[in-house]
Amino acid sequence: MEIYVVKPGDTVDAIAASYGISPESVIYNNQLLYPYALAVGQALLLSAPLTEAPSYFAFTNGYAYPFIDETVLTETLPFLSSLSVFSYGFTTEGELVPPALDDDFMIAAAINSRTRPILTLTPFGPDGQFNNYLITTMVNDESVKNTLLQNLLSTIQTKGFAGVDIDFEYILPGDRIPFAEFVADTRNFLAPYGYPVSVALAPKIADNQPGLLYEGKDYALLGQAADSVLLMTYEWGYTYGPPMAVAPINKVREVVDYAVTRIEPAKIDLGIPNYGYDFTLPYERGVSKARTISNLEAVQIAVRAGVPISFDETAMSPYFRYEENGIMHEVWFEDVRSLREKYSLLPEYGLRGIGVWQIMRLFRAGWLLFQDKFIINKSFG
Description:
Blueprint: E1 2-5, H1 12-19, H2 23-30, E2 43-46, E3 57-64, H3 70-76, E4 82-90, E5 96-97, H4 104-112, E6 116-121, H5 132-139, H6 142-159, E7 164-166, H7 176-190, E8 197-201, H8 219-225, E9 228-231, H9 249-259, E10 268-273, E11 276-281, E12 291-293, H10 295-305, E13 310-312, E14 317-324, E15 327-332, H11 336-343, H12 345-349, E16 353-357, H13 364-373, E17 375-376
Parallel strand pairs: 3-4, 3-16, 3-17, 4-6, 6-7, 7-8, 8-9, 9-10, 10-16
Antiparallel strand pairs: 1-2, 4-5, 11-12, 11-15, 13-14, 14-15
Helix pairs in contact: 1-2, 7-8, 11-13
């Protein structure tokens, strides 16, 4: 497949004719909306004759909530090695807390698509936020930990899950080693039953990196403890921060450079954001709040506003500014150019695959591009 960047005066029909492909394929690949208006600077994924078959096997995981649109789920599953259902919590006694909505349809759909359904375990408190008191209580109490492990196994076997993903954040520095031991205990407990264990890692660049997101995550210990890890290489640009790329490639590369010195590269999945942010200007710390948008919505905003899309060559990410109701906005998002840069890190570093946060909104071009570059590992069972 080829990437084409829209120029002034371009139309879908003209672009398709110049490449000898159908307009319908351009519309389908890029989920264009009638009447198929384009923004200058917009990146389009075009179907071109295959010149070289992919040879790199890669795992793909996508996170999803049980309120995912079933059509989006059905279309995405063929591209996924595993589907992480978000999420299961637990109490201070080690009892599992299932999602508020039923997830059976997700599990069944995943299995039918030869995609492994994964139980995502999170330490959410009653307020729905990460709770480090829950973490501390569980990882330091063998009785609570053993109860949780038994409940995990029972739920996995009853519902048909194929593994566990441990997504704990804001771990206290004093729980760094007990948390790694919990991950190892979970893996050792579930391994005889054939269930792998993965763990999500905040994007560190040094062992002693300060901050509550980082100090409780020991890359070396967790890399040994788990079957695989997810580098959460996103959220540099975030809801309450200044306008910038969600996952600038220069920052992503710094994390990978560090990670491969502590963890076997074949165990590492690269985090991929499937969203962007619409920031308001000027940015005011503690006041400004960006709106989360899909990659498709970002382009639609540019089309409606009649503004060109630019591309930052350092972050390797698209962005643009527009004005609405007297307020200036700056939008950063992902397109096939920014994803191509991230995907290229897999063979460069020998990484296992990618983990997408999250798949609630379909970005077809991103999946088609990945499928064009890699053989998606769909081994199941």
